[in-house]
Amino acid sequence: MDARLDYFADPTAGKALKHVMAAGKMIKESSLPAATQELVALRVSQINGCAFCIDMHTKDATAAGETPVRLHLVAAWREAAVFTEAERAALELAEAGTRVADAAGGVGDAVWADAAKHYDAEQLTALTLLISFMNMANRLNVIARQPAGDYQPGQLH
User: Fold this and answer.
1) Interval 63-110: pLDDT, tens
2) How far apart are CA 80 and CA 90, in angstroms?
3) pTM for the complete prediction?
4) What are the domain boundaries of the chain?
5) How is domain 11-144 classified at the CATH fold level?
6) CA 33 to CA 126: how far, in whole Å?
7) DSSP code for 77
8) Which InterPro entries match (predicted)?
9) pLDDT class for 157, splitting at 50, 70, 90?
10) Gap between the Cα atoms of 57 and 33, Å rounded
């Protein structure tokens, strides 16, 4: 399967993606725990059906020491006992922020309050940016049918 578009070869996309990648790097360097970032990126990508990002975040998380059990259970995090309360709050916010079209009220106050119990303002900002960033990246890859499977850990960092 070939991608419909090569974003890195297109001059317009190349200019835009340079800034997008810089924003992604800033989020990665934030005080939001790295494990939380990978779990959230993976869950958003699962919801959106972005095979490329699922491949990337699974491999990057594994390379960073994440366990296979936790990675396999991200899709069913509510029933899994392997996540901290803070990670659960982040995953809940990620789902609510990704499925805004499915919920009349968007991200509910209870979801936000639960996340705010575990993360400070800087971390909440990073988490919100990460959720939005991943939704954009997922859409770019899904629209272009970016193939998955060949990603090497750290390839886009």
Assistant:
1) 989 999 999 999 999 999 999 999 999 999 999 999 988 876 789 999
2) 15
3) 0.92
4) 11-144
5) AhpD-like (1.20.1290)
6) 10
7) G
8) AhpD-like, AhpD_core, CMD-like
9) low
10) 15
